[in-house]
Amino acid sequence: MMLLELLNEVVDIDTDIFLSLNRMHSPFFDYFMSTYSGKWIWIPMYAAIWYVMLRNFHWKVTLFCMVGLALVITIADQTGATLIRPYVERLRPSNLENPISDMVHIVNGRRGGRYGFPSCHAANTFGLAFFVWFLFRKRWLTVFMMGWALLTCYSRIYLGVHYPGDLIVGTLIGLLAAYIVYRLFLKVSGYKTMKKVPHIYAPILVGGLTIVGILIYSTVMIL
């Protein structure tokens, strides 16, 4: 009984934090967050990460890296979407069946699917960010990737489709998936962390330009 009461209290706190963050919105950030939260907008940055691999690793190691990244995303995504969501059945805050849905700010009428625990966006983006961290061990690339993933998580709260708790658990799933796959990658590929990695700032440059592009687009749209 005490466990149930504790769980209800945690859920209430999670909801209060969500509503506090979600109610802070503006037309500019409606455009920014909805675009930033998209998947296809980040393809150039993903390509830049691949470019760094190609420029620094033997083609076989690069192949193992790409397979590893695919495994991280698959494990992180399916753990949330297939193994957890159908059993937990936590409604998204934006879902019309949720009692708080009338208080939730959404953008372009998008409410997402029915269930949102855990967040696959958080699992996927942090899975990628952690794998890149384990792989390269470079401070500024790590800072950028973590910041990118963190803002992605915030965008999901802003858009009204995830509670903070959804995102925290999704992040932990992404971390676990990245660590397991990275350890497997080391055994299979024999990869050793490099001290110098030429072109390591390419993902930061491309990702940064993408963010600038989103900022410009959002500004133009509200004029």
UniProtKB/TrEMBL annotation:
The keyword Membrane belongs to this UniProt entry's keyword annotation: yes
By its UniProt entry, which InterPro entries does this protein fall under? Answer: PAP2/HPO, PAP2/HPO_sf
Instruction: Please give the superkingdom of this protein's source.
Output: Bacteria
Signal peptide span per the entry? none
Q: Which UniProt keywords apply?
A: Membrane, Transmembrane, Transmembrane helix
Domain (Phosphatidic acid phosphatase type 2/haloperoxidase) spans 67-182
Q: Which Pfam families match?
A: PAP2
Membrane-spanning intervals of the chain = 31-54, 61-84, 115-136, 143-161, 167-186, 198-220
Name-wise, this protein is Phosphatidic acid phosphatase type 2/haloperoxidase domain-containing protein
